[in-house]
């Protein structure tokens, strides 16, 4: 072709675009030849120079695009980078318009990108980064976004249209690799827009963004497994287009052209998503999306279901979407129907649908809505019923049907678990907050039911929600509630996952440590801290994540969420103690700093001492004393000061209990004798708790003297000493004498449950030690004699007032008679009184004394044949024991407790069978109306026979006792 005159060409272009169709036909052939010529690479740029007519500029742009699309082979490899720069520069040149030219240039860049995917693999990323991050000076943010969307939208179409030597399937595969990035980019933008007010200018880019997503889904495909977020966004946009106009009291209820266009393209995109060629491979996700459609759009169709509706276009598009979805997923629809009755099937499907909508009720419960809580129980019932189906095929069908429902439900529950934000919390009363707390616990339980259906897939769903939330937070850091709710969901299912899960939980751990908590509501940090604690078993198997967990927990110690931090740290130190060894000193220093800060509540300080004990146990013996001095000494210093001042004010009492609780908690966890192969060094050294006890035992005695009338103080002091004994075991022996002085000092003033329990603990642990036996025997005698003094001083009708002490007394004796029965073979112990008060306890209305006294007597009888004095005691009191037991069964003891007496009858029958027969006949048959006048002689004889016959079968004996109790109480008619 001869050289082209640029002036003539420009004139021809202007004439072409401004002339009639007949003149255009004549010019079209020539202009087409011009475009096909090699010279087009040059004149296209000349036509796009500033100052040229808009027609010329447009023709230059479409020529460039045509050349890129059809004649890429004409571009030398060494000139391709220059071509890219030229295209970009020209795009920037036309950023101010005309848009017609700019649009074609953007499409030209898209064609260039498709050709260059191998040589410029980051092309799409670079375009997004350049325009989304506004790196082009003197071009508005909205225009840069417009350019980016134009380029991205054109790529799938150019992929199908360009002339290339690359196989179309290969090219399609390369483009498809970029689909997630493009979809994420459009999703992020749309999410931002959803959170804003829309003006007339906003619709253009929003429509373009949706069209971009639509084009990629339609021409490239985007697995519907990854389309839940874009679907949710598009449905929200449809609703935002629709409802403001129809609800405007000053409007005509008709959507504007912009609203209509945006809603229509949104619905068309949804259609492309749900009818993709391979979407039948993902029935679960497809059903989730279809359900999302119904939930979001049914109200619109209902609102518009009227004559002369104002928004026929959107209704039409919605029904098109519904129909297309049903057609494409007819198999899924049939799978969801588990019955041959079509009406029942329809009813069940609609019921499930309605309940799902109820669960998804907009607003926060209970202030903004009040019905969603009533649906939560259904989700337990549904999965429970499905898994209870006997026939495997039917069960499997049902399970397949409910999976998408529960996947959708999981996402709904994350939203419903969101707490009120700072803008709405003022509307909440304390009752509202408590109701919501219970509601969130119900949601947590429902997450567990979702796990039962979804298993490990629930982590993938929650991970997707987490990604969405983080994306939102990057643009609006105040939207913390969804992130908190998502983390709460992860926490709810934590117990189901062990160390083998290595995909989503590591991601969660990284996210928890990267959140800028200082910029967000403190509740978010609290939930994150609790979640770390809930995954401690997982951390034990994945110790590489422990440092980040520690970092977060330490951060929480100095925050208003210290309670959650101490809880999380306690769980970490308990479950992962050995794995914590490298971080023990660092954590101890942080714990000490937290304790001295004065910012933590007393309960948090007490809880933190557990972790301190576990961490201190990991240190070598030479390092422990300094930490004991720093952390524990302040406790004893304050206790000493209170005792010296003999201050008995309420505040002093509270501080005493607080400090004793700290010490008690430390004693429960501080033990350097770790039961593991990876034991720490210097195990032969003295246990640190013993070092503390040796220095502080006098303080315990002074506390007992000062606070002997305050049961809660004594209980706390005894608890501390008990933990020390249990912890140290044989190492505690040097302190036994002081402990006995402490106990007896309290006994001399009062006998109470805490002192009884610590006495029993010491006796059981040390009695078998020959060096301690004598001391423990004396302590046991004191234990019994001081208890008797209390019982003797109690009025006949006042034993219920000391029921707790009686219960503890016989509970302790039960342990003693089971583990060291020889200790009771002592003339100083009055067996008659021991049995007498046990029988007294059996007749009380309180369950505790009944239970422990029966168990003690049963074991006492079982052991008695081995010790002559105990044998005499049973032979002497045997008849009275049985008489009391029969009376209790017949009319005294609450009916729900009568089965417990089977233990007494069995033990006597095993060790004293001959005596049992005589005793029972003497008791039952010599008194006409014994135990009540409602049982005759035949019934009593039958009961005696049943008792004597059953020497082993406890269950059958309990049945006989229950039947006798019913007869003796005149309840036979009621239970027939």
UniProtKB/TrEMBL annotation:
- Importin N-terminal domain: residues covered: 53-93
Residues of the signal peptide? none
Superkingdom of this protein's organism: Eukaryota
SUPFAM superfamilies listed in its UniProt record: ARM repeat
Q: Name one GO molecular function term.
A: small GTPase binding
Location in the cell reads: Nucleus
Per its UniProt record, what InterPro entries does this chain match? ARM-like, ARM-type_fold, Exportin-1/Importin-b-like, Importin-beta_N, Importin_beta-like_NTR, Importin_rep_1, Importin_rep_3, TPR_TNPO3_IPO13_4th
Q: Name one GO biological process term.
A: protein import into nucleus
* A single Gene Ontology CC term: nucleus
Q: Does the keyword Nucleus apply?
A: yes
| Keywords from the UniProt entry | Nucleus, Repeat, Transport
Per the similarity annotation, which family is this? Belongs to the importin beta family.
| UniProt subunit comment | Interacts with UBC9, RAN, RBM8A, eIF-1A and PAX6.
| Protein's name according to its UniProt entry | Importin-13
């Amino acid at each position: 072709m001869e050289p082209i005159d640029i002036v003539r060409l420009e004139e021809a272009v202007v004439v072409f675009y401004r002339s009639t169709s007949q003149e255009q036909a004549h010019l079209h052939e020539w202009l087409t030849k011009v475009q096909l010529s090699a010279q087009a690479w040059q004149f296209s740029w000349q036509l796009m120079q500033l100052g040229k007519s808009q027609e010329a500029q447009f023709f230059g742009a479409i020529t460039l695009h045509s050349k890129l699309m059809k004649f890429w082979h004409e571009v030398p490899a060494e000139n391709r980078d220059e071509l890219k720069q030229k295209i970009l520069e020209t795009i920037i040149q036309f950023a101010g318009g005309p848009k017609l030219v700019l649009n074609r240039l953007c499409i030209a860049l898209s064609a260039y990108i498709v050709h260059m995917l191998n040589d410029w693999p980051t092309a799409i990323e670079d375009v997004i980064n350049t325009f989304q991050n506004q790196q082009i000076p003197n071009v508005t943010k909205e225009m840069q976004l417009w350019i980016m969307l134009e380029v991205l939208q054109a790529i799938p179409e150019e992929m199908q249209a360009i002339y290339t030597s690359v196989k179309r399937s290969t090219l399609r595969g390369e483009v498809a690799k970029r689909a997630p990035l493009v979809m994420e980019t459009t999703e992020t933008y749309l999410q931002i827009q959803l959170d804003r007010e829309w003006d007339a200018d906003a619709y253009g880019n929003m429509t373009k963004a949706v069209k971009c997503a639509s084009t990629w889904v339609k021409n490239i495909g985007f697995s519907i497994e990854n389309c839940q977020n874009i679907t949710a966004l598009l449905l929200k946009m449809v609703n935002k287009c629709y409802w403001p106009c129809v609800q405007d009291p000053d409007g005509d209820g008709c959507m504007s052209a912009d609203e209509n266009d945006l809603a229509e393209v949104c619905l068309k995109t949804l259609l492309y998503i749900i009818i993709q060629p391979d979407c039948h491979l993902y029935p679960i996700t497809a059903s989730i999306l279809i359900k999302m459609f119904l939930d979001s759009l049914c109200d619109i169709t209902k609102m518009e279901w009227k004559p002369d509706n104002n928004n026929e276009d959107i209704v039409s598009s919605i029904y098109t979407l519904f129909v297309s979805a049903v057609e494409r997923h007819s198999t899924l629809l049939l799978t969801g129907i588990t019955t041959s009755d079509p009406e029942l099937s329809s009813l069940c499907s609609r019921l499930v649908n309605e309940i799902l909508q109820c669960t998804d009720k907009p607003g926060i419960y209970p202030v903004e809505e009040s019905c969603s809580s009533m649906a939560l129980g259904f989700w337990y019932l549904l999965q429970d019923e499905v898994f209870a189906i006997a026939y495997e095929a039917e069960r499997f069908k049902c399970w397949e049907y409910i999976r998408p429902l529960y996947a959708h439900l999981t996402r709904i529950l994350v939203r419903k678990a969101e707490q009120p934000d700072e803008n709405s919390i003022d509307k909440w009363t304390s009752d509202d907050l408590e109701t919501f707390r219970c509601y969130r616990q119900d949601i947590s339980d429902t997450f567990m039911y979702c796990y039962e259906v979804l298993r490990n897939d629930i982590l993938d769903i929650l991970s997707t929600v987490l990604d969405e939330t983080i994306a939102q937070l990057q643009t609006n850091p105040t939207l913390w509630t969804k992130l908190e709710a998502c983390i709460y969901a992860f926490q709810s299912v934590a117990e189901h996952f062990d160390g083998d899960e290595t995909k989503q939980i590591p991601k969660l751990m990284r996210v928890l440590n990267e959140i800028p908590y200082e910029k967000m509501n403190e509740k978010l940090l609290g939930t994150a801290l609790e979640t770390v604690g809930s995954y401690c078993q997982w951390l034990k198997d994945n110790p590489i994540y422990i440092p980040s967990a520690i970092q977060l927990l330490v951060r929480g110690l100095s925050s208003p969420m210290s309670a959650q931090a101490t809880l999380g740290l306690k769980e970490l130190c308990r479950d992962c103690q050995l794995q914590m060894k490298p971080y023990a000193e660092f954590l101890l220093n942080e714990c000490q700093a937290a304790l001295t800060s004065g910012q933590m509540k007393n309960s948090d300080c007490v809880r933190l001492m557990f972790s301190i004990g576990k961490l201190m146990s990991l240190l070598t013996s030479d390092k422990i004393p300094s930490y004991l001095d720093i952390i524990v000494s302040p406790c004893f210093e304050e206790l000493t000061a209170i005792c010296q001042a003999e201050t008995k004010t309420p505040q002093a009492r509270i501080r005493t209990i607080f400090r004793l609780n700290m010490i008690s908690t430390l004693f429960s966890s501080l033990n350097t004798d770790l039961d593991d192969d990876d034991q720490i060094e210097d195990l032969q050294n003295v246990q640190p708790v013993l070092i503390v006890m040796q220095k502080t035992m006098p303080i315990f005695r002074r506390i007992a003297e000062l606070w002997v009338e305050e049961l809660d103080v004594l209980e706390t002091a005894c608890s501390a000493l008990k933990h020390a004994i249990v912890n140290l075991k044989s190492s505690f022996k040097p302190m036994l004498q002081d402990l006995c002085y402490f106990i007896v000092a309290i006994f001399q003033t009062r006998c109470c449950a805490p002192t009884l329990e610590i006495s029993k603990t010491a006796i059981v642990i040390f009695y078998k030690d020959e060096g301690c036996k004598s001391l423990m025997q004396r302590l046991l005698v004191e234990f019994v004699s001081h208890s008797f003094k209390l019982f003797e001083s109690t009025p006949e009708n006042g034993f219920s007032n000391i029921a707790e002490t009686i219960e503890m007394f016989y509970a302790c004796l039960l342990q003693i008679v089971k583990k060291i029965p020889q200790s009771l073979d002592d003339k100083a112990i009055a067996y008659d009184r021991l049995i007498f008060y046990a029988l007294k306890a059996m007749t009380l209305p309180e369950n505790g004394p009944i239970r422990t006294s029966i168990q003690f007597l049963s074991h006492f009888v079982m052991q008695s044949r081995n010790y002559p004095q105990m044998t005499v005691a049973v032979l002497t009191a045997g008849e009275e024991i049985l008489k009391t037991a029969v009376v209790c069964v017949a009319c005294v003891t609450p009916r729900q407790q009568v089965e417990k007496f089977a233990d007494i009858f069995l033990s006597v029958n095993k060790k004293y069978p001959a005596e049992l027969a005589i005793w029972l006949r003497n008791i039952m048959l010599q008194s006409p109306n014994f135990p009540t006048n409602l049982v005759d002689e035949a019934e009593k004889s039958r009961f005696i026979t049943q008792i004597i016959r059953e020497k082993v079968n406890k269950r059958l004996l309990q049945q006989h006792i229950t039947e006798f109790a019913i007869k003796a109480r005149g309840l036979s008619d009621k239970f027939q």
